[in-house]
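User: I'm preparing a small set of examples for a lab meeting where we compare how different chains pack in three dimensions. I only have the primary sequence for this one, and I'd like the structure in token form so I can line it up with the others. Please keep the answer compact; I'll paste it straight into my notes.
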Amino acid sequence: MRDLRLDFFRGLALFSIFIDHIPNNVCRYFTIQAIGISDAAEVFILISGYAAGMVYGGIYQRASFVAATARALQRVWQIYVAHIFLFMLFMATVAKATSGLNTQLFAEEFRAADFLTAPDLTIIRALTLQFQPMFMDILPLYIVLLCMLPVALLGFRHAPWVAFVVIGGLWLAAQLDPRVALKAYPGVNHVWFFNPFAWQALFLFGAYFGARGAIPQGRPPEDQRWIFPLAALVAFVCFALKIEWTVSNHFEIMTPLFLKQIGPYLSKTDMSPVRYVNVVALAVVVACVMAPQSKWFKLRVAWPFLVCGRHSLEIFCLGILLSVLAHFGLTEFLGNAPLMVAVSIGGIVLMVGVAALIDWVGAVGSKRAAPGASAIPASGGRE
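Assistant: Understood. Below is the structure token output for the 383-residue chain.
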């Protein structure tokens, strides 16, 4: 049985990423980043780790480590091809807007100016994942994390504490030393926006529990019931702080509570402790109060999230392109709040429509398949 929680919240994260990527979008007050210190990127990576743990951990148990590694690398190749294809579409869009509007503003804003001035070198850097324009940094992170997964699964099975020490050590090193990062292009000191050495701790945390099939029925074991109230408290505190910071940002007479003290520990690049704890607390709360096959998921209002979550790679790529086009359009026409809302709703409708089309094509292909064949995996989380 599919774990519909994964599909639903992955769809929610995809909608949030699209909306949040549109500058000054009033709809951002209704996305994941509005309810805590972490945002949709953390949710997306945590869910992806959990789903990857379920899929490839299951292959490891049923077949072998080699089979799980081969399937993971096959997925890495698919994501890499999608990233390069998206990169070319992204660059073509930025180049067209730059030339059509006769301005370098968009090229500089999207960190694409180097591509327009030296495309030969930049393409090589893009193929090696070193050149990452704005919005084009999540898939390279996921590629690296998925490459780490087979070794982590091996450690989880044979030496879990060693695996935890290595994972925690890498994360801690990234917090303490800025040199623990992957170099990016251009610039000497430019590094990946999402530091894989830090973000692996979140992805592999999810993978560990996904491989174990932890909390499958939406509630923790009897001896771990204390986890839920603690997670709920943490999630509530983070929510209250974010609301207070948002209000303070609009009324300058107010001083944001604890922002000065917590601010240095909010790095998104290095997956700061505060962001890490927040997203894990949210995940625990959801896992404890919502079952994998909750009746709520059968409501029509849940379907758009579920259908997009089932096809996360395709819809993520589409969302990136739509956010770029929305940015160009709103900037050119000086978009106001109603126009931002209309563009956001229109983009989401298009994302849902494409996801539904992919779903329909898959269903038709499944019906035409040979008896006994299945076009859709039966496991709980399509990675």
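A couple of notes for your slides: Residues 372-380 have pLDDT under 50 and may be disordered. The radius of gyration is 21 Å.

User: Perfect, thanks.
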